[in-house]
Design a protein that fits this description.
The structure is a homodimer. By secondary structure, chain A is mainly α. Helices cover about 65% and strands about 0% of the residues of chain A. At the A-B interface, helix 1, helix 6, helix 7, helix 8 and helix 9 of A face helix 1, helix 6, helix 7, helix 8 and helix 9 of B. The structure holds a DNA duplex.
Amino acid sequence: MTLTDAAGRGRPRDAEIDGCVLDAALAELAAKGYAAFSLSAVADAAGTTRPAVYRRWKGKAALVVDAVARLAEVDPPQVTGRPFDDLVAELEDFRHCITEAAALPLAGIMLGDDVEPALRRAYTERVVTPRRTRLRAVLAAAVAAGDIAGDADLEVAGSFLTGSWYSFAVAGAAVPDDWAPRVARLVWQACGGAAPG
Amino acid sequence: MTLTDAAGRGRPRDAEIDGCVLDAALAELAAKGYAAFSLSAVADAAGTTRPAVYRRWKGKAALVVDAVARLAEVDPPQVTGRPFDDLVAELEDFRHCITEAAALPLAGIMLGDDVEPALRRAYTERVVTPRRTRLRAVLAAAVAAGDIAGDADLEVAGSFLTGSWYSFAVAGAAVPDDWAPRVARLVWQACGGAAPG
DNA sequence: TTTGCAATACGGAGGTGTCTCGTAACCTGA
DNA sequence: TCAGGTTACGAGACACCTCCGTATTGCAAA
């Protein structure tokens, strides 16, 4: 959603440009980080001009926040009712978001020292919280089903799930193809359960 | 070690400046990331001038690599021979590096898209590899001592150790005070062992 | 006196946010 | 059906800033 909502009668806003600019903004964010984020480069990459961008967004911060919101527009995987399979599906979804979109560099930006508060808030609300909520729900369902122990340390175990990927990436190492089931199996075992299969 | 080694007879190089510049470079790197890294800001923060920095380092890349090398100048914890305790000690050391130095933002930079190859190499060689080697050694010792299973998935389990911290940090969450023993306990259990105590 | 360091200064490049054009699209009302 | 008003567009320009990498000058230590 852009900033203006002109109810006038003139030429309607070219909606296609919005998407191009947001995609370009995500790519620029991934490549340069927030501090070096350049509106000139974004406008160029989007095939438009700087004034056109300023007409839609107030500035760098507003554009970046909108771009993050766009990144979060993904459909979560279906819940099957089998907690272990749901966990693997969530991890595969995470892998998909990381590899397809610019999600990994964005996570890297969040490790920085001077993260713009609005950006941090947008990222937490729209990216972190939804995923964490779903992962927590899967683990809670596993406890309810008796698949894992009721007194398991779910807070730390939950941090293993996505953290494993970050660890590989920081080290510059390739993530194994069967990463998702292997992570799920280990976390299951860490929580006192036995992975099916 | 800086780049020049003038053996002339004139005034000797002021070695103190080197350290100030490297510290300032690490702080700048943590705050702005690599792309927005500014030699002007570094020189200002170090209380010197840009030409003085250029006299010591060839440019941005060389300075950053030296700064990373300085970051890696830490003493690893002593090995006790009790694998579980050694693992906790390593995790506490990791925590110390993350919280005291600028190690976390630097890790975030490594998640970026266009990391300078020289920086990536320096980080991998001097930060990632030493820590990973020590962690692998601890897990291998645990296997040898029969504390954890011999067929455990040590590759993925190893990624849990540091990854857990990254996961908390990306989410903007506070890391628990007893993070190290809790991580160690869960990983122990994931590898088929029982944590002592 | 020799030598290296520090500070000032320089031109070039690139970014920012704003402003003004002329043009093209769209809606409304004659 | 067709003009007129309204609006967004691309393009160009602006004044200002920060950064880069280097050249020059003056000072201080050996």
